[in-house]
Every structure is written in structure tokens, then in C-alpha cells.
Amino acid sequence: MVKAKEMVELSKSIANKIKDKQGDITEDETIRFKSYLLSMGIANPVTRETYGSGTQYHMQLAKQLAGMLQAPLEERGGIMSLTEVYCLVNRAQGMELLLPEDLVNACKMLEALKLPLRLRVFDSGVMVIELQSHKEEEMVASALETVSEKGSQTSEEFAKLVGMSVLLAKERLLLAEKMGHLC
């Protein structure tokens, strides 16, 4: 909590100096600020103040997301719900919280910017971020294998077995059903 208070004070001091166009941010302040940001997971956070509120902001945010979400996505099997992503990103952003629509707009740019992630919207409307390398066929084959071994299951049972959220488990089962592998 002490570090958080120091971070807030340092942020305010730097923000005020930038607003006043003094530009005398000491090297010590810069180093301390960057160290706090790194400990939260962000080297240089993308903010509306830095990039405005338009396309440039969303493009830079998309690039930041690609860098920060690669490892968590790999740990979670290559896919995360947008809700999970929103929570993870805002926890790392600290004081510079994202608006949900900014996250969605940035995610819509991931593929166009040729980043290793993409936004996917399932037929149900559920939005996820997945690695470009994440294959639908592999996802369905994995679900089919699990159901073949364990028998008929609810979304909740399947989620528990494979270690994912119920929402994503349900989407995986629905996709397998849509492709004619499950009924």
C-alpha cells in the first residue's frame, strides 16, 4: 500500500510537470516511475493523454495488448474471454484504466496490424482473444477426445475437466456440435 501511495504521488507530480510544460522530470523520478510500471507489467502504458482518443490510440493499445497478453494466452491454451482480458489489462494498467469500448476497438485492430493475436466473436456473441496460431480444428478435436473418454458432460463438468471457464467450455462444445462431432 505504501508503494501504491508513492506511485500515485509520483504520477501526479510527473503529470503536473508535463501539463505545465516544465519538462523538468528528474532522471530519478523517471527511473522510479518506470520501475513501478514494470512491476505492474507495463513498461510504457498507452494512454489517451499520450495518443489522443482516436485510431492512433487504439493502434498503440493493440500493440501493447499483443505484448502483454502473449504469455497469459499461452498459459491458458491460446484463448481468453474478453472479460478476462479486460480484468488482466486493467490490473496491469494500475491508475490508467481502460474503457471497455477502447479495449474492443483495440482488439478489432489486432489482425489488421498483423499482431500474433486476434479477436474472435462466437455465434453466441461471446468475444475472445486468441493466438493467431490457435486452431479451431484442434480445439474441437480436443473437446471430442475429452467427451469420448469421459462420456456425455455438461459445460460445467467439461470446464472443470479441461481447466477453463464455463463460458469458454460451452463455446467449445457448441462449436464441436455445430461441426457435427457432438450432439
From TrEMBL:
It comes from the Eukaryota. InterPro entries: Snf8/Vps36 (IPR040608), Vps36 (IPR037855), WH-like_DNA-bd_sf (IPR036388), WH_DNA-bd_sf (IPR036390). Keywords: Cytoplasm, Endosome, Protein transport, Transport. One of its GO terms (biological process) is protein transport to vacuole involved in ubiquitin-dependent protein catabolic process via the multivesicular body sorting pathway. One of its GO terms (molecular function) is phosphatidylinositol-3-phosphate binding. GO terms for cellular component: ESCRT II complex; late endosome membrane. Pfam families: EAP30. It is found in: Cytoplasm; Endosome. Component of the ESCRT-II complex (endosomal sorting complex required for transport II), which is required for multivesicular body (MVB) formation and sorting of endosomal cargo proteins into MVBs. Component of the endosomal sorting complex required for transport II (ESCRT-II). Belongs to the VPS36 family. This is Vacuolar protein-sorting-associated protein 36. The gene is LOC123392228.
